[in-house]
Amino acid sequence: MTSVAGSDPVSRSTARPESYAGGMLTLFALDGIPEIVPGDDLGQIIGDAASELLDGDIVVVTSKIVSKAEGRVVNATDREAAIDAETVRIVATREHAGGVTRIVETRQGLVLAAAGVDASNTPDGTVLLLPVDPDASANTIARTLRDRFRVAVGVLVTDTLGRPWREGQTDVAIGAAGIRVLDDLRGTRDSSGRRLDATIAAVADEIAGAADLVKGKTSGRPVAIVRGLGHLVGSLELPGARAIVRPAADDMFRLGSAEAWAEGFRAGSSREEGTRG
């Protein structure tokens, strides 16, 4: 077990052990998480439900209960205004029989439908906003659990997103603490000895998706424990999930097709007007 001291009890190497490949991974959801209300201490509640955590465990927490604990609840009648307030950039819009779907970028840097404003698993007449700072939320939970159990654990805060070109949704990490969220394999060799020059595994998102298989969407079990990935757990000073967001300069798909066409048309019109002038 890792030696513990202070609020960040780990000085774990983040080197990938040679014995990891083919190892066993264990995932299980926690029972006993009550209905969360504003002001609840999630670290304390998760600790009570877990009863024991092991060194290297990763605690995966659905963002909805983080939003509830942080009071990110608004009246459903204000949903459109809430989406507007959470949006920093409209990526794409599409009209359909039920209205208009907006894909937007939020202040957290996420690109998703309706700015993540969600009416599921919340009382009638209300909707939930995403946590203001999911990385900070994860850090608070991690510190509480590390102090209580005196072991090094990582924490992920997750939400459900759709994907371009793919049907269905999957959970991804929107907040993280004490875990290496990206596994940079560049410079290593594959099984055939070929050098990897571009591979960076989004391990936090992979863990989030796997954990959702045991949490489920309707089971009332919003927290899961992932065991067997201790080599990814480290200091609380590690970068959070914000590090997974691709910089705008590297984003080849920054706009929806209609928005990109309109932007190009405006730019072309402006150049034509300038030439005439």
UniProtKB/TrEMBL annotation:
EC assignment? 6.3.2.31, 6.3.2.34
Q: Listed GO molecular functions? A: coenzyme F420-0:L-glutamate ligase activity; coenzyme F420-1:gamma-L-glutamate ligase activity
Instruction: Write the record's keywords in alphabetical order, separated by commas.
Output: GTP-binding, Ligase, Magnesium, Manganese, Metal-binding, Nucleotide-binding, Potassium
Top-level EC class, please? ligase
Which Pfam families does this entry report, sorted A to Z? F420_ligase
Domain Coenzyme F420:L-glutamate ligase-like: where? 33-228
Report the source organism: Antiquaquibacter oligotrophicus
Q: Which Gene3D superfamilies match?
A: CofE-like
Please state what the protein is called: Coenzyme F420-0:L-glutamate ligase/coenzyme F420-1:gamma-L-glutamate ligase
**Tree of life domain:** Bacteria
